[in-house]
Amino acid sequence: MGAVGAIKTLFHRMLGVEQRLLLARLRHGDLRPRRSPARDTVVVEGAEPVDAWSVREERLRRVLAVLATAGVRYHVLPDLPDEPARPRVGPRTVLVDTSSWGRALQSVRGLGPSWRVVGDGALVTAYEVSAPSDPLSRYDAGLGVRLERRDGVPGEDSAASAAPVRDVLEVRERVDVVYTWVDGADPGWRRRRDEAAGNATGAHRSATADSRFTSRDELRYSLRSLEAYAGWFGRVHLVTDGQVPRWLDTAHPRVQVVSHREIFRDPSVLPVFNSHAIESQLHRVPGLSERYLYLNDDVFLGRPVRPELFFDANGCNRFFLSTARIPPGLPSADDLPVDAAAKQNRELLVRRFGRAPSFKLQHVPHPQHRSVVEQIEAEYPQELAAVARSRFRSPADLSVASSLQHFWAYETGRAVPGRLDYLYVDLADPDLALQLYGLGRRRDRDVFCLNEVDLDPDVEPRVAALVARFLEDYFPRSGSFER
Q1: How does pLDDT run across 346-395, given as a tens digit for each residue?
Q2: What's the CA gap between 330 and 403, in Å, rounded?
Q3: What whole-number distance in Å separates Cα of residue 235 and Cα of residue 256?
Q4: CATH for 176-474?
Q5: CATH 3.90.550: which residues of the chain?
Q6: What angle, rounded to 10 degrees, do the helices at 460-474 and 218-229 form?
Q7: S-S: 471 plus which of 15, 180, 221, 481, CB 3.0-4.6 Å?
Q8: Is the pTM of this model over 0.90?
Q9: What is the fold of 52-162?
């Protein structure tokens, strides 16, 4: 680093977070008024939910309609990822015969003033421009239609070719989504938790902390991210302790609220306040698809994603390793619950397969096989029953959904390591405002997590305001799940 760079770095470190945030906004010309939306009142009258997949398919339909009208010979290619290891959402590709190329360009350029056609020669991209306030506006070209000039393209009779035979790499089956959620401010729930905590033995000291159960309305925005950026999902199953978010439309055909009593093999162990216990029973959700995504409500999709980011078409799931190592040694009362569970998982895997995992997993959507968890339960019924009756996190827990299931699936040929662009944001970080600003401006992550581990009560109001403002800016459009 040169002298000028060192001076800049020193100056930057001398500034407070708010001053650095202001400089960042000045540098990018972003001095918009910031708003703090009222909770439970964010509604856009008459607005359709933003759905990247519907937008892209509608643009394809419009382009194919004008091509067919002009008598253009074209062929729609299957929707394949550019890089199988990290599939991305991109424009739909249409091959146009050289003899029809001129008519094709004239047709798409006549779609209307809201459309743009960029490129030249034998490759152009046509897309419709969204309003600047639309969160998908930055993906306009990526959600468009790419026209490629080729010789010898067979003619198509109509836009029916928009649904070609699916490629061997494309996921075909339904993929459901499971969320776990709790309203930690509910007086009845708090009373049950406090009563159970008074009789708890062996629980970790952090197991009953309020921060473990704080709700910042993240679920509403996580669902918005799901609907906007992964419209290919099947149904959403929301697992709760008999609680329902006030804003949730429970009559929505793609949502099901599931009580703990519906999924626990032994309901007599309820109530439980341990995410490890709840996650060990998720495979019992009624009507759940064989392959599904499990999300905590503090996990969000940051941009349009394909199902192949999480699943392979041949039946394998993907899992996403962290760079953090599982600590050595046996589980102990001094371990953080996440580390103790990782160690317990490791001991079980060594017993079963003779091999041990070395790394933790990222806090992202977790692809699941229902049948894998059923197999674990069939071979280790006592171990899973012990986790299910563990009311608070303890050193004896297994973390079934977020870790054990992945490594078991890998050992039995049903999972492979995957990669995604991910950001973990600690809400206690002094630079939280800068992190959120950069994340919201770039929008270059497939997944991000806003996690709270140990937050000072003195900064709680400021953090709550920052998170509320950030989420409303990132996901401003109401989802169809909201009343």
Answers
A1: 999 999 999 999 999 999 999 999 999 999 999 999 999 999 999 999 99
A2: 17
A3: 8
A4: 3.90.550
A5: 176-474
A6: 20
A7: 221
A8: no
A9: Beta Polymerase; domain 2 (3.30.460)
pLDDT digits (tens, 9 = 90+) for 55-87: 999 999 999 999 999 999 999 988 766 666 667
- Can you give the three-state secondary structure of the chain, one letter per residue? CCHHHHHHHHHHHHCCHHHHHHHHHHHCCCCCCCCCCCCCCCCCCCCCCCCHHHHHHHHHHHHHHHHHHCCCCEEECCCCCCCCCCCCCCCEEEEEEHHHHHHHHHHHHCCCCCEEEEEECCEEEEEECCCCCCCCHHHCHHHCEEEEEECCCCCCCCHHHHCCCCCCCCCCCCCEEEEECCCCCCHHHHHHHHHHHHCCCCCCCCCCCHHHHCCCCHHHHHHHHHHHHCCCCCCEEEEECCCCCCCECCCCCCEEEEEHHHHCCCHHHCCCCCHHHHHCCHHHCCCCCCEEEEEECCEEECCCCCHHHCECCCCCEEECEEEEECCCCCCCCCCCHHHHHHHHHHHHHHHHHCCCCCEEECCCCEEEEHHHHHHHHHHCHHHHHHHHCCCCCCCCCCCHHHHHHHHHHHHCCCEEECCCCEEEEECCCCCHHHHHHHHHHHCCCCEEEEECCCCCHHHHHHHHHHHHHHHHHHCCCCCCCEC
Intervals of CATH 3.30.460 along the chain:
52-162
pLDDT higher than threshold 60 for residue 194: yes
Percent of the chain at pLDDT exceeding 70:
83
447-465 residue pLDDT tens:
999 998 777 788 888 999 9
Of the listed ranges 70-79, 150-159, 190-199, 242-251, the least confidently predicted one is 150-159
pLDDT in tens, 99-141: 999 999 999 999 999 999 999 889 999 999 988 878 888 899 9
Residue 250 burial (CB count, 10 A): 12
